[in-house]
Structure formats: C-alpha cells, structure tokens
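agent> Task received from the user: take the single chain below, predict its 3D structure, and emit structure tokens. No templates, no multimer pairing.
agent> Plan: (1) validate residues, (2) run structure prediction, (3) serialize to tokens, (4) report one or two observations.
agent> Step 1 OK, no nonstandard residues flagged.
tool_call: predict_structure(input=
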Amino acid sequence: MRRMELIASGRDADVYALDGHRVLRRYRHGGPTEREARLMAYVAEHGYPVPRVHDVDGADMVMERLAGPTMVEVLARRPWRVRRLGRQLGALHDRLHAIPAPGWLPVGFAGTDDDRVLHLDLHPGNVVLTGRGPVVIDWRNAAAGAPAADLAMTLVTVGTADIPWPVVRAGRGLLLRGLRAGSRADPGPWLRAAVETRRGDPNVTAREAARLRAFAEAPGKVSGDG
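)
tool_result: status=success, residues=226
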C-alpha cells in the first residue's frame, strides 16, 4: 500500500495528498464531516468559493486539491499586501453572510435570531489563493447566526493567535484594520462572546490564553502581539 504524503497539519486535522487532484482531510478525533460536506455543497450552490467534496467516510473527507498558497503564507512573503488582503478577507465574510442558513444548520451563538451562514473560523490560514480566486476551507465550526458574530470571531482569533511568522505578527494590526474596512458588519457587540467562545477551545495555547485574558479586559484593542 502506497504511503500517503502529509501536506498540511492543523490543530485537529491532517491533510494528505492522494494524487494531483485530490486530498484527504482526516480529523484526529472525529468530526461532523457529513454536515460539513453538506454545507460546503450548499454554499457552493450559492456561488461561494469552496473546494469540491468527493467523498465522506467517518472522520475522513476526500476533497479537491487546491493549487495556491494560503493568505497567511502570502502575508509572510509579501507583507506590503496586508491591508489589501485584510479587505479581501472582510469581503469574503460579507459574501458568505448574504447566504441564508439552511434549517438543519445549528445556531452558533445564543441570543440571535439571524439566520445567515457563519464560518466561525474564517481567518487568513483558511483562505487559499488559487488561480480562480480565493477559496475558503475548513468548515468544521460553521453555524447559523448573526454576521457580526462571525466577524468578531475572526478578529479575536487573528488578534490573539500564536502566529509563527514574525512579519505577519508585526502586521497583525494592519490586517485587522483592513478586515474591518472590508466588511459592513459591526463586530463590537459580539467581541466578548467571541472571546469566551475562543477561550473554550481546547486547542488554545497558553500564550493565546494569556492574550485572550488581556483582550477580554480591553475588547476594543485588536492589534499588537499582546
């Protein structure tokens, strides 16, 4: 049996190359892969850019292999594009939030009666810049709810994340300001809820937890390396 090539590894899943056109995304502890694949097909029908899903089996998902760097990899190599990429990320939020949530998608945040599709992990590491444009990956956390809550989650995630590239860390504030400029949503009322949601993630590192505590004390400040 041919050994699969590991090409990417995230906090809860690994991605293996199957051939030149397909990859296997394998969750280490299981995942809502059938619902995730169903939602990806749903948003694709509404014109949103996602990889094509070929097959789902338990914790495994076979998907289209995308050619291109992630947005965060581009930021590491071309930091002068940070504001432009931030605005592009904001526009991807607004484009997604124009899609009504299907009735079977669970609500992501309590206290909202909005019914838009939310990604809830739409940060630069989950946007692949391909020849056909940006494509959004990793829909594990997707839910229904208020668009502003989704933007707040991205602000909190990017503002407190342990980023391995120093040049990206240095431009974090510019990226966040570009993100705010690129989206029509007002994340302010949802920032504290987003912080608490993020703090409940078992994958959060000790450094990130410290930034989240600082962020909770001053939620309006979403820049710097904390």
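agent> Step 4: summary for the user.
The first strand starts at residue 5 and ends at 9.
agent> Done.
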